[in-house]
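Protocol step 4 of 6: structure prediction from sequence.
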Amino acid sequence: MIPIESTIEDKQTQFASLSDQLEQEDFHLGGGYTYDHGYFDKPLDWEEEHGNRYFLRIPVFGVQGDIGDPDTLVRIGKPFVIKHEFRTDESRDPAGDSGVFSGMMNQFTTPIPAEDHPIDQKWIDRAKEIVHRVEELPL
């Protein structure tokens, strides 16, 4: 996990407004969100044939209300880059047969540990460019 410094950290806004704006930038709220927090994810390696492994993740925390409710006031956390690889060999992970798409939607799919595999600078640079664009949105 590589944190990205940003002016959006700690901003508060309505969930519906934030969600609409981030979806226009191809972010998606992960399916494993809870009532008090969630993550908007954007793949960084969209042109790769292997499926997505590198993501820019923007955390959100419910201040008043529940995540997913359009009227909820949310606080934006520090964006970060994550490398997330999924097992697809059924002998190692029986739930892995649905592949990367399911893993992208389910934040609780078992990842392959990536600690020993550093994140290439090109993904960090791409994430910084995207965060800069998000900073320019009227959050």
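Step 5 (inspection) to follow. The longest strand covers residues 54-64.
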